[in-house]
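Lecture 7 notes: from sequence to structure.
We start with the chain below.
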Amino acid sequence: MLKVTALALFAAFLGAEAAAAQTMTLTSPDIAPGAKIADEQVFSAFGCTGGNVSPALSWSGAPKDTKSFALSVYDPDAPTGSGFWHWVVFNIPPDVTSLSKNAGNLKAGAAPKGAVQSRTDFGVPGYGGPCPPQGDPPHHYHFTIFAVDTPKLDGDENNSAAFVGFQLHFHTLAKAELIGVWGH
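Predicted structure tokens for the same chain:
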């Protein structure tokens, strides 16, 4: 009986730990989970005619030890062999829990003070919206917010998503994801 009780307590502990790890959420008034991304967020080149406006995003439930946040937008369906990075932002201050619409436009100056937007696979920093090849099935765009255990990751606007991702691998406390789709 003692063995069964100990196992039940251990299982309850693991369940509580899993629930605590799953508390962070990412939402957007502009992107519904699993839904088609609006033309306003779509890239404006390579045969796409969108507005290239980054969506408004909000997050909650970060661990109390969070010292900064990072955000990435990634298309694993891109026909590159390694996916395609559409937006990378890091060193977002820990008291910030949202990004306003168009925060990915460097000229707009709407990103939080101290945040760094680094180079995407378009070759420049800032937001670049969806634009998969015409005829491809709709691609999945993973918007991921990371709770980070350090106030600043090393790097600047010239760093690649892989460089930032390498650091996030060692400094992520929790993360949340929102996935939208787009194709033409």
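Points to note: Residues 24-182 form a domain with the Phosphatidylethanolamine-binding Protein fold (CATH 3.90.280.10). Confidence is low (pLDDT under 50) at residues 1-21.
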